[in-house]
């Protein structure tokens, strides 16, 4: 955040709150928080003559196209609060024409923890974790019971058709994802009456304290659909962050379904939950590609968005795991092997050594300045510290690909040739039209090997994680 931006935004918020609360308001602290892949999140301290309030501002990036989703989100939040769902108190909203610069929501700050790795590991949250899966089931049942008459007009549609269309729009053949999409089409669950779907109910969008759930956040993806979508999304392996329990890393599926049944009066089937879990895993793969496009297309240059493009293979692997088509394996990290010999004309450090030195600067000197004797308070703000780690991860991916990428490409070409496929596009076409069904095990072996190759470069340790 530049001083100019902070001053302009603070002035605009002061004016907006002064009008809303009908008394003078002074902004005494304003800083952007980490997180918020699609929207900015700001911490705001607002002083009046008799009190200080801590607020949260959620706004679209000023460069983003304006849409009606903020108004929709505000209406859904209000309906959820009436239904007894824990949500932050909404103070106001705007379309950005009042000086805030883009559509926004202003709501109360809620004390608690949203960072998944802390949520899953900190001892002070142990009691909250113990009953959390059932509690979230009960909350989801309340969300899904909200009468449609109390909601704004929400978009709906066939989720699998929409997912397929979004994936196909990139025109990038992905054999593993094609196998998963085919399974989803062949195993559709019985249709349910559409209801309110939160759309992003998961670790990271849940505010917890030692007493349990305090708030459900980020309602921007709310839509009409099968309520089971929310339950399956919560079980997607990406939201476990390495913890073994299948529901968010903190509970099991039966606890979730039992909690849902307590409020809803009926219990979802395990088969329906499994379908939506696989669907959610494929959906996250497609979302990663969409996020990467924000960087690749130039609308938002971001190392975080760029690296998400290399995380697609994690979700492809997770979906294959969920379907029983692959299993956990251990592979050697190429970075643990001796670096390749430098046959060029340039002096040392080699390319690999330069990349390693840059990664070390990002993760050691920038992120942990105290380790070098610097002032412990001289480090980066949390957002830049996070992006420094992401950038170091990007450099590790580059180093691995430089070491093993050529050999991987040659091995994959051999596998394709053995199947009679010229390239991945030919293989994807065969998976879709069934022309290689008589060699399905060979197809799956090629798909597994390609997924392992991608993860060996992107995140080799991920391959050893169990399905859950």
Write the layout of secondary structure elements.
Blueprint lengths: L2 H19 L4 E7 L7 E8 L4 E8 L9 H14 L7 E5 L9 E5 L7 H6 L4 H5 L1 H13 L14 H11 L5 H12 L8 E3 L8 E4 L2 E5 L6 E3 L2 H7 L18 H12 L5 H27 L6 H6 L3 H11 L28 H16 L15 H37 L5 H10 L6 H19 L10
Antiparallel strand pairs: 1-2, 2-3, 3-5, 4-5, 6-9, 7-8
Helix pairs in contact: 5-9, 6-10, 7-10, 7-12, 7-15, 8-10, 10-12, 12-16, 13-14, 14-16
Features:
3 domains; single chain; Phosphorylase Kinase, domain 1; 9 strands; 16 helices; two-stranded antiparallel ribbon; alpha+beta; five-stranded antiparallel sheet; Aminoglycoside 3'-phosphotransferase, Chain: A, domain 2; 10% strand
Give an overview of the whole structure.
The chain has helices at residues 3-21, 69-82, 116-121, 126-130, 132-144, 159-169, 175-186, 228-234, 253-264, 270-296, 303-308, 312-322, 351-366, 382-418, 424-433, 440-458, and strands at residues 26-32, 40-47, 52-59, 90-94, 104-108, 195-197, 206-209, 212-216, 223-225. The protein is of the alpha+beta class. The strands form three sheets. The protein has a five-stranded antiparallel beta sheet with strand order 1-2-3-5-4. A two-stranded antiparallel ribbon has the order 6-9. A two-stranded antiparallel ribbon has the order 7-8. A hairpin with a 2-residue loop joins strand 7 and strand 8. It is globular. The two termini are 40 Å apart.
